[in-house]
Amino acid sequence: MEAHIKKLMRAALLAACALIVSSAAYAKRVFIDFGDQVSTSGNNWGTGSSESLEADLVGNASLSVAIGFTINTGAGSFNSLFINENGAITFGATPLSTTFTSVSALSSLGVPVIAPYYANLQTVTPNGDVFFVEPGEVLYSYGVADPRPDSSGNYSSADAVPAMHVTWAGPTVSGDATLFEIYADLVIYDLGGGDFALQFGHGTDANLDIPDLGGITGFALGSNVVNLTGPRSGNEDLYYEFRNGVLVPEPAAAALLATTLAGGLALRARRRR
User: Fold this and answer.
1) Based on the domain organization, do 10 and 58 belong to the same domain?
2) DSSP structural state of residue 216
3) Cα dist from 180 to 12, 121, 166, 183, 214, whole Å
4) In terms of domains, do 65 and 120 share one?
5) Are 237 and 255 contained in the same domain?
6) DSSP 3-state helix, strand, coil percentages of the chain (rounded to 5)?
7) In sequence order, what DSSP letters do the residues of 157-207 get, joined into one string?
8) Both 161 and 32 in a single domain?
9) How far apart are CA 62 and CA 83, in angstroms?
10) Separation between Cα atoms, residue 264 and residue 21, nearest integer Å
């Protein structure tokens, strides 16, 4: 019986460790509403920001913008970024090439990158009206938002922090005969002292999912690397936190590991007695 318990404890510990070293993300269904035409549920975007700003990225172009705060990515500290047409933001002195590069891992791009959905996207020229969003536009905005729910699953303006939001609102994938529109959101939350959080969202209430169109969701920030491929579901957002330039484990996984370790120590103590 003790051998069986020991085997179960070891399996639980290995499972917990696997959770921690895997992508430290957990699901949450919170989108940021940036305009009347793309309204989504659960938004907590504060009124401290002005209207959204448009980015004209046609032709694999990029736009350099301020973040509004400084983040320590593990690949350097940055207070600005490039918004790129192809579903990604990058950091450093130069943006992505105006020629799309197909990669199997985001680190192959050779620059620090965060990608809600990196693919060969085709955007449209902004219409000049941020409150009437044409499919294919890219917008960004600044404000405040609560990055994480409380124990009851609720978000509160009292817990809001400075944040930046970028959305690719319906570009198509080049060469896709179905002209499927990609909706991908990125929110960067300021957690203070260079610490930050990322939230990825996909789809809209009307069109939740993105099929497998060859895109990559994730980031390559020094040793902090996540590459997610395949279809993306609008039923779950992905949330990651970075502390001191390091991707921290999912809170639930950390709690599971602590519980497992405590149980293992107690079991060994009983055996010693």
Assistant:
1) no
2) E
3) 42, 10, 20, 10, 12
4) yes
5) no
6) 20, 35, 45
7) GGG-EEEEEEEEEEEEETT-TT-PEEEEEEEEEEEETTEEEEEEEES-SSS
8) yes
9) 5
10) 20
Determine the Cα–Cα distance for residues 89 and 44; give it in Å rounded to an integer: 22
User: 120 with 102: CB under 8 angstroms?
Assistant: yes
State how many domains the chain has. Answer: 2
In this predicted structure, the answer to whether residue 46 has a pLDDT above a threshold of 70 is no
Q: Domain range holding 44? A: 25-248
Nearest CA to 111 out of 61, 73, 59 is that of 73
pTM attached to this predicted model: 0.78
Q: Is 117 exposed, middle or buried (0-12, 13-18, 19+ CB in 10 A)?
A: buried
d(CA 184, CA 40): 13
- Compute CA 57 distance to the chain's CA centroid, rounded to the nearest angstrom: 21
| Mean pLDDT of the chain, nearest integer | 76
Closest CA to 58 of 132, 133, 135, 126: 126
Model confidence band, residue 220 (pLDDT cutoffs 50, 70, 90): very high
Per-residue b/e over 62-83, b at no fewer than 16 CB within 10 Å? bbebebebebbbbbeebeebbb
